[in-house]
Write a structure and sequence with these properties.
The structure is a homodimer of 223-residue chains.
Chain A: H1 3-30, E1 34-40, H2 46-57, E2 63-69, H3 74-80, E3 85-90, H4 99-109, E4 116-120, E5 137-143, H5 150-153, H6 155-160, E6 163-167, H7 180-190, E7 195-198, H8 207-222
Parallel strand pairs in A: 1-4, 1-5, 2-3, 2-4, 5-6, 6-7
Helix pairs in contact in A: 2-8
């Protein structure tokens, strides 16, 4: 049985990581920089959501985006088009970011003049949920085509997020077995404090509410 | 730096796993059981694809499904409705299956009378690609709503699959920025031998070709 060896190593990583994450959060508080950890499955619309968000908030605050991907630079290139600063982090095959990797990104990026930094985590509903990145808040996107049963299958991810955006709501007529009521009920059962917002990054639906949430969180952290 | 420690442990796991996987494949060959490892993002349509596949092949061969999930039994319950045998494997938080976990499932399930066993892996485009499960062939599903750029972002997954099903093709008119040509070109660049089949598990489009591929592979292995 190899289970014992694996579990020991994971535990030591988690303990170190929690300390690292708390330290990074303290540093960010001193620097008045709000770090948002944004997670989702591959293709749920993280980058499109960020583009829509940046276009609405860029005149009010300085925004930077750290794009984490196993490979490719396509997302960073897309974000730079919005006028926001961006860097691409290649994880070298790793399926998530931990606090140490996030700090390396933050220091390389140079975030002291930024009010809001968004970390676009690797597209994955499993592993990123296990590692505190040092972010101030966790957000995730679930897209309508993925189905309303996902909170049942990936409970940890839904449990650790402060806000859940249900994206691609413009396709609800095509994916007519997706129940907004059922998904919200399943999320709230796991995480009664989670804020659930129904959006479409394509049409802009729901972005007033999402941007109000973000605006208030950034203001509270950086005041 | 914790990198060294982590990499050492991962390497030893991979080496053990490769041996385990080869051994499991030998056992399955003796028992004339074909094991297919089916992978995808959360919500790409693995279970619906399996239902459509089982309904077409169940009179020709004995089929079993092993549903791997971090939590919940919803997929196994859905598969049992088709008349195929199914078990649910709970991974206890693990983001993938390795060969040892797969063998535990195979032995618990009792597969000696089955021609085709499908392992529905955890919904994740990253970690499952790193672990040989002992399957005879690897298949993956990419769904149209996820976008045609996914081979650029998750290259390992696309590199190790023998067949890639592009699912939810009935929604191509809604997701009109998805290019069938671009996605196939990106997959072939990573993996020239991969078979790419465009399907819709909802309408049955493309399932003749997919079932022909599967029928031939099972026949070759179990003869």
């Amino acid at each position: 049985m190899k289970d014992f060896k694996v579990i020991e190593v994971k535990r030591s990583i988690f303990e170190d990581n929690d300390k690292d994450a708390a330290k990074l959060r303290d540093e960010l508080k001193q620097e008045k920089t709000f770090l948002l950890n944004l997670m989702s499955s591959p293709g749920a619309g993280k980058t499109t959501t960020l583009r829509q968000t940046i276009s609405r908030l860029k005149d009010e605050m300085n925004i930077g985006v750290m794009e984490a991907d196993i490979d490719s630079d396509v997302d960073a290139a897309t974000i730079v088009e919005t006028g926001a600063r961006a860097i691409q982090i290649h994880t070298g095959g790793m399926c998530h970011l931990d606090a140490d990797m996030t700090r390396q990104g933050i220091r390389e990026f140079g975030t002291t003049d930024l009010d809001l930094v968004v970390l676009e985590n690797v597209g994955n509903l499993v592993c990123p949920a296990e590692f505190d990145t040092g972010s101030v808040k966790n957000a995730m996107i679930l897209s309508v085509p993925e189905g309303d049963d996902k909170p049942l299958k990936y409970p940890l991810m839904f449990s650790i997020c402060d806000v859940v955006l249900i994206n691609k709501c413009d396709t609800l007529s095509v994916f007519d077995d997706f129940s907004k009521e059922a998904v919200e009920e399943r999320i709230k059962k796991l995480n009664p404090n989670a804020k659930v917002i129904f959006v479409s990054a394509k049409t802009g639906e729901g972005f007033d509410e999402w941007c109000d949430w973000l605006r208030k969180e950034v203001a509270d952290w950086t005041k």
